[in-house]
């Protein structure tokens, strides 16, 4: 199960809507080994594409080094789908390289509907998990 703070949830959805019609992407870092998503990190989609996302390699290296320096790990890796449901594509599955992360997808295909789903992706196997949204600020 993904437990995520309302403020971070809202920021992920807002980023997805703002970048539409291109896919948005980013991570939410948390203290190593805690499974607590605490620090929202919006990243640029280097592809600037409505059908594909890729972290900019320099930005990703900087973000991952910063997480290492802060004893953090990527608890959530998120991106949006602009014309399809919030379910990982074959490409998404092939690029899933963080076995402990929650892979969140937000579909922006319908501006009136919020579709926010979370998955575990390990060795190419996709497992959807429930999402629990907590009110209030994330613990620090």
Automatic annotation (TrEMBL):
Top-level lineage group: Bacteria
Residue intervals of the MPN domain: 2-125
Keyword Transferase: no
Keyword annotations from UniProtKB, A to Z: Hydrolase, Metal-binding, Metalloprotease, Protease, Zinc
Protein name, UniProt field: M67 family metallopeptidase
């Amino acid at each position: 199960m993904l437990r995520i703070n309302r403020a971070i949830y809202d920021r992920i959805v807002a980023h997805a809507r703002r970048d539409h019609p291109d896919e948005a992407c980013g991570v939410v870092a948390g203290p190593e080994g805690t499974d607590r998503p605490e620090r929202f990190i919006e990243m640029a989609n280097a592809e600037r594409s409505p059908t594909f996302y890729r972290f900019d390699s320099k930005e990703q290296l900087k973000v991952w080094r910063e997480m290492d320096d802060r004893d953090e790990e990527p608890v959530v890796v998120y991106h949006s789908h602009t014309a399809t449901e919030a379910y990982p594509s074959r490409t998404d599955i092939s690029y899933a390289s963080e076995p402990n992360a929650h892979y969140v997808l937000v579909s922006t295909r319908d501006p009136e509907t919020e579709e926010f789903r979370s998955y575990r992706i390990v060795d190419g196997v996709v497992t959807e998990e429930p999402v629990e949204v907590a009110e209030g600020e994330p613990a620090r």
